[in-house]
Amino acid sequence: MNGEGLYEVKGLTKVFSTGFFRTTRIYALNNVSFNVREGEVLSIVGESGSGKSTLLKILMKVERPTSGTILYRGRPLERWDSREYWKEVQAVLQDPYSSFNPFYRVERPLYMAAKTYMPSASEAERMKAIRESLEFVGLDPDETLGKYPHQLSGGQLQRIMIARALLIKPRVLLADEIVSMIDASLRANVLNLLYKLKTEAGVSVLFVTHDLGLASYIADRILVLYKGEIMEYGDVDSVYSRPAHPYTQLLMKSIPRVTSKWRDRITTTTIEFKTGYIKGCVFADRCPIARDYCRSNKPTLKEVEPGHWASCHYALEALKSAH
Ligand SMILES: Nc1ncnc2c1ncn2[C@@H]1O[C@H](COP(=O)(O)OP(=O)(O)OP(=O)(O)O)[C@@H](O)[C@H]1O
Fold this sequence. Notes:
GO molecular function, one term: ATP binding
Shape: globular
Domain ABC transporter: 7-252
Strand content: 15-25%
CATH topology: Rossmann fold
Protein name: Sugar ABC transporter, ATP-binding protein
CATH architecture: 3-Layer(aba) Sandwich
Keywords: ATP-binding, Nucleotide-binding, Transport
Oligomer: single chain
Distance between the termini: 30 Å
Bound molecules: adenosine-5'-triphosphate
Number of domains: 1
Helix content: 25-40%
CATH superfamily: P-loop containing nucleotide triphosphate hydrolases
Strand order of the largest sheet: 6-7-8-3-9-10-12-11
InterPro entries: AAA+_ATPase, ABC_transporter-like_ATP-bd, ABC_transporter-like_CS, Oligopep_ABC_C, P-loop_NTPase
Structural class: alpha/beta
């Protein structure tokens, strides 16, 4: 990893207006700032409704931010021509089944991508590239090509979508909950593949998940989101072994371990629908250490140790009492 900034995100805010008169305002993201370094895996963790998909949609240029700036390789995102941007940034989404048409063979998305992004290549060159990218993701091209989606597992289909992204030789892979719909036994294959992408192909990965355990498995750094705001952010070893935010501490307790009983788990829930702007800490209502001050004053990210930030007025206290 050379540590150079790939994305620089500053003050990113996305407000949705809903309701009959469009007067209900939902802060899907509020003042989110972070960077993505070249060659790293950054995991973005949060419960349902925390703003993960909105963030990825903005990075995919599907949604436009309400305010804030995003630089991709030093140039504002809106100044990147979409075609030029998609040559560098590819996305793989949650549901592998929805990416395939059941009436076409599974190679169709691969052919389409090769045709679009290798316009001057011959048929033989495109076919060679398709076979190579299937091999990279651990699939036997002879076993895979010619099959229909229902003849392959979710994990195999997800790997074909990663192979499709790889054909374009991207710098960045945006991965939105890509293992949540595949069997637990196949998850490790896909996660190991993401690791191989980083180490062997030098691809930077934004890995979006609701599962802190999965997030830490392959990440270099972790960003924890709650109700559209960053709770904690930093190097995976520090965040995972010394979570400083009460929310991350709660998420840690909800990771199943072989040594803990089911009844000891704290199950996290879907975040209730949030409307309007919350003046204080967005986590105060669920926080075990919240004080009155937290409800009326918004915390900002503070460095609790080198390379590790938490957005909590009492982060240092929480860190000390928990460890
Ligand atoms: N197009 C939209 N119009 C109105 N509200 C939206 C829209 N998209 C997202 N939201 C709201 O913004 C908030 C964040 O949603 P988002 O989908 O980004 O969360 P998420 O963390 O990806 O959740 P999930 O894991 O369930 O996909 C939610 O309250 C959601 O209802």
